[in-house]
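A note from the maintainers: we've had questions about how concatenated examples are separated. There is no special marker in the raw files; a new sequence line simply starts the next protein. For clarity in this README we add a label.
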Amino acid sequence: MTRRRRRDHGDSRPFWRGLPHHYADAALGAFMGLLSPLGAFLLRYWLADPLLRSLWVRNELQYNAFFYAYMALGTGAAFTAFGYALGLRSERQRVSNRMLSERVDELHLKSVTDALSGAYTYGYLYEVLELEIQRTMTEKSPLSLLILDIDDFKSVNNSHGHLFGDRVLRETAETISANVRSNDILGRYGGDEFVVVMPGADEQTALHVAQRVRSAVAKNGYMTTVSVGTSTYGGGSKETPADFLHRADLKLYQAKRDGRNCVR
């Protein structure tokens, strides 16, 4: 209970911070409007004869109190209405901008996501790989790559139809995503191939994750398996994404030659 009270106390904010913007702006306008009589009074006080200021104050409060009250109510109401209208317009603009930003993010995500598998597109994955190689060269940290190919996928399509084949692709992508690390990036390489970019992963980590993915796919209930090729970039020499992918591709072909459903 003590820990929760501390957290609630830490999250507490002044009440006006929780007000909608148009209410807060209206309150600010009202406050500024109510200050206008004080400003007028101080200005007139400054213009009065210094020798007669004490007498001026008594006369001013006695004979012009209605004037100051009228000014307070009039300017307060005007500033309140102006603040409310300005705040309402500003709040609507903020909502519109937020919705537009969310829509842009949604469209961007769709543009870089493969519609069938839900993995990233090859184009986006290539850009990510370029950035990760640059980061690896700068930080001298490892970077690994997996290329996974569904074994005999053509026969799956021929035997069960393309709709079933599409389902196998989706389920395989979900299985891969569920068994890689949280910071790994999954993309569809094309056809029945997927690529996983693994920032900070050395060769042993890549092999361990690849074996875990291979085993999970073999148990996903679709009687399909994957062959996996791995490649690790140590950051010692400059290498293009195409070179990096090619080395993993060669390992994938080796896995195919060695009987499929294995990691190389």
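[label: protein 2]
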Amino acid sequence: MGGTVRRGLPLALKVIGSFLCGRSMKQWRDALDTLKGIPVDEIISKLKISCDGLEDAHKQVFLDLACSLIPGPAYIRKLYPEIIIAVLIEKSLLFESSFERIAMHDLIREMGQRVALQQYPRKRIWLHEDIADVLTENTGVEAVEGILIPLKSDAEEDTVHLSNEVFRHMKRLRVFIKPYHMNFMHLCAHEPINFLPNSLCWFDWSYYPSASLPKDFKPPKLVGLIMRCSYVVNLWKGSKV
């Protein structure tokens, strides 16, 4: 029964779309009005069945993507194995949009974010209210594997002041993304950043505040290094072998 439900739920979503394809605008609106009667929490709760049935490796990739721990769709296949992406597409947790870009439905994304917060607190940081705790208070940083600097919030301080040791205890950090757009929170460091975890696979820090990367930064699994408009003069001091 459980397996049938897991397979049937994404299929049901596809069937609704297939059923409405080619029908009139009135029929679409009627169907939408019907769907609006279902509470969002109930829909998300049902969608969660698809996530719970994933193998752990697949689930972790799905949650990374749900929490936007990737700079853009074009980079997904650089970070994650093709077989895992294929499984997530097969289970309708992802889909291929135009130009073979990987995309995710908003409700699926919301479900994934809820799972990430409930089952893996502090593993992925992307919410405004958590950034200060992690980057200034160093609260619960040992578990952190991914950080996405969020959009500014009118109600809160939009600049985070970093110590040069901010990443010292983030030994599991895989992904760090500070987007280029100015609408995102600012990161300010008064001293050069002197430590970055070698566990990093993707390091994307626009406006990086130091003149070089830390001397001991030697990440063996790094596949992405993006530093738009940074203050970097040399990637690091001295030579690397």
